[in-house]
UniProtKB/TrEMBL annotation:
Span of the signal peptide: none
Annotated ranges, domain MmgE/PrpD C-terminal: 265-428
Name of the molecule in the record: MmgE/PrpD family protein
Domain MmgE/PrpD N-terminal: 12-238
Family: Belongs to the PrpD family.
Length: 453
């Protein structure tokens, strides 16, 4: 690459580190919703095997030598290192797969930056809710542009951890009041070590690796702490290369955080458009498991490549399409209980799967990644064929979820927590926006283990 542009980086550093950064109120409000929604997913993911392994592993191998280096693992209570806490929680969230995302990045931001916020915030006394949301919104903006720049610079489809690590590094530097030079080195370290793992490899063979956001949180927070000690790694080419300049030109002017979608189902969003189409026909046309003869799904190539068989693990279920369509038809919804434990071998769901076929439609593929479109035909046993028409996955700008639906999703996902605790956490969505509300009013609700396990 050409020599880094000091003036261009100075503008980015000012955006990241300025104590007077102003986030538009609508973007800040949506950021609060994203934060609480992600915490609901984190609570729901506590009993999953991947989350348990991650937390126990962090205790054994990511310990902190001093309290000033430690952070509390959410919904657990044990203390580990700051990077370890971020890694464990991001891994836990990633493996329930109900967290937010941003279409142009083809991936997820909150899954990594929310755990980092909670870990670094323990060492930011006096942090208010609005200050925390401002830092979080900033990190969404940095991660979004890093992701788009990275996708534009390489040919493979890499996981979110490859670029959301930069949002984590920026957040750590802001909350710690670091100098621009520390930020520069931290971004370079985070980008260099960010896991450029192949997303489609995980789609073809679903595992607990998911979208790499656990490693993104680990690498990003580690990068901040290393840079603070003088470790060098700049420049980050997705930030400072001339070819990347176009992706950063509107930083501070165009706010992408308000365009992040919220998932109604805890499965890969590539399945959501088909699920939404079927759900609509269930509600409006009376389609049931009993009167349905067959379903033909036309979708984009990546969606058509989702796991096709009967899942043997939560990972396979989350990256499945036919299974989730069958579960939706049987249960009327898809929650964590349907993609784990006994839900994986539900005989009624498995019996429907052979009646569902999936094919790629080039016109849907052409609209990816900016759109997630599908359509389907349902043939009833009486011979009628009902067509859904083209449907885009709900939860984002194309079809926002109603506020009441987002709240209902939070309570459903966070069912591991007592009702009073859930309502207190949800209430913090609005309280954080009020002046001078301490951020610890939220964090104090998050540290202890769930009551309903």
């Amino acid at each position: 690459m050409s020599a880094p542009n000091d003036a261009r980086f100075a503008a980015i550093a000012d955006f990241v580190l300025s104590p007077t950064l102003v986030v538009p109120e609508d973007a800040l409000h949506h950021c609060a919703t994203l934060l609480i929604d992600t915490l609901g997913v984190a609570a729901g993911a506590v009993p999953l095997e991947a989350g348990r392994i991650a937390r126990d592993f962090a205790v054994d191998f990511h310990a902190a030598s001093r309290d000033e280096y430690a952070a509390t693992m959410l919904f657990d209570g044990r203390r580990v290192s700051i990077p370890g806490a971020g890694w464990a929680l991001a891994t836990q969230i990633d493996n329930l797969d109900g967290h937010d995302g941003y279409n142009p990045t083809k991936g997820h931001i909150g899954c990594a930056v929310v755990p980092a916020l909670l870990a670094f915030a323990e060492h930011a006394p006096g942090l208010t809710g609005r200050d925390a949301l401002t830092a979080l919104a900033m990190s969404y903006e940095v991660a979004a542009r890093a992701g788009i720049a990275l996708h534009a610079s390489v040919s493979d489809y890499h996981t979110s951890g490859a670029w959301n690590a930069l949002g984590v590094a920026a957040l750590g530097c802001r909350l710690s009041g670091d100098r621009p030079e520390v930020l520069r080195q931290a971004l370079g370290i985070a980008e260099y070590h960010g896991p450029r793992s192949q997303m489609m490899r995980e789609i073809d063979n679903p595992t607990m690796l998911h979208d790499g956001s656990g490693m993104g949180a680990l690498v990003g927070s580690t990068a901040t702490l290393m840079a603070r000690r003088g470790f060098t790694g700049a420049p980050a080419i997705t930030v400072e290369a001339p070819e990347a300049a176009q992706h950063w030109a509107d930083l501070g002017e165009a706010w992408t955080v308000g365009l992040n979608y919220i998932k109604p189902y805890p499965v890969c969003r590539w399945a959501h458009a088909a699920m939404d189409a079927l759900n609509h026909l269930i509600k409006t046309e009376g389609v049931t498991a009993e009167n349905m003869q067959s379903v033909t799904v036309r979708t984009f190539a990546e969606s058509a490549r989702l796991f096709d068989g009967v899942p043997r693990s939560t990972s396979q279920a989350q990256y499945g399409l036919r299974f989730n369509l069958a579960a939706l038809m049987v249960h009327g919804r898809v929650g964590a209980e349907h993609i784990s434990g006994a839900g994986l071998s539900d005989p009624d769901v498995i019996a429907l799967m052979p009646r569902i076929s999936v094919v790629e439609d080039p016109r849907h593929s052409d609209r990816f990644p900016l759109g997630r479109w599908s359509d389907l035909d349902v043939t009833l046993k009486d011979g009628r064929v009902i067509q859904s028409g083209d449907v885009h996955a709900r939860g984002g700008p194309e079809a926002w979820m109603e506020d009441a639906e987002v709240e209902a999703k939070f309570h459903s996902m966070a069912g591991t927590l007592d009702s009073s605790r859930r309502h207190a956490i949800w209430a913090m969505r609005d309280r954080l926006l009020e002046p001078d509300v301490p951020f610890c009013d939220l964090t104090n609700l998050l540290h202890s283990a769930p009551e309903n396990l």
